[in-house]
Write a structure and sequence with these properties.
Radius of gyration: 19 Å
Distance between the termini: 38 Å
Strand content: 15-25%
Structural class: alpha+beta
Strand order of the largest sheet: 4-5-6-7
Number of helices: 8
Order of helices and strands: HHEHEHEHEEEEHEHHEE
Length: 220
């Protein structure tokens, strides 16, 4: 999310995090431009009137780089011409301030659901499947429910199967870009996920790479 109103931005981020989302936050257009064009986000929320680069410039740069990430404009610019300009620049949605938090959260859910239908809503590694809509993992005949952090972590592993993931990379993806790596929280949550998907099975999927991080290995 790129929003220069710090109080509003923190309020929105808090609401999103309470619903299980991982949120990176920027307060100016230059930093927002860098994040939006270099990091693999599922959704971007953009203000238009920002220091250094405005939201339309950021969006145009994203589309020039052929990034199809859904973008919601959240702005005080309410004129019809502004809406047309934003949508023509490649925005997927346009919400005018002041706004309803309930509506914003509903729009976020709608665009993320749409993104799922364009990719895969079910991830599979060997006999492990992850239903991205139900937040449910199934290993063989065993079904398990996941906490929000466990879900994001398992999804990250399954989307990067056979790739070694460092603790820092995992921390920044499952928590946020300000993850310091100074605690053992990554190891704790990897252990939680292992207990849910590997315990009781001869074939282990999640492996420790000593001194580096972890890898989910495909049995294939």
């Amino acid at each position: 999310m790129v929003e220069d109103n710090v109080k509003m931005a923190e309020s929105i981020r808090r609401g999103l995090k309470e619903r299980g989302y991982v949120v990176d936050l920027s307060h100016d257009g230059e930093d927002g431009m860098h994040l939006a064009t270099t990091e693999p986000y599922d959704l971007v929320i953009l203000d238009i009137m920002l220091p250094k680069y405005d939201g339309v410039q950021i969006l145009k740069r994203m589309r020039e780089k052929e990034l199809s990430t859904p973008v919601i404009f959240l702005t005080a610019k309410d004129a019809v011409d502004d809406r047309i300009k934003g949508l023509d620049a490649g925005a997927d949605d346009y919400i005018v301030k002041p706004f309803s938090y309930g509506e914003l959260m509903a729009r976020v859910r709608a665009h993320l659901r749409r993104s799922l239908t364009e990719t895969a809503s079910l991830l599979k590694v060997g006999d492990l499947t992850l239903d991205l809509e139900k937040h449910e993992a199934r290993r063989g005949d065993k079904v398990t429910q996941l906490s929000s952090k466990e879900f994001v972590l398992l999804k990250y592993f399954m989307q990067n199967v056979d790739k070694v993931l460092t603790r820092t990379a995992i921390g920044e993806h499952v928590w946020d870009m300000n993850f310091t790596g100074l605690s053992n929280v990554v190891d704790v949550y990897v252990n939680y996920v292992r207990n849910k998907v590997d315990r009781g099975f001869e074939m282990k999927l999640i492996h420790t790479i000593r001194g580096v991080g972890y890898v989910m290995r495909s049995p294939d």
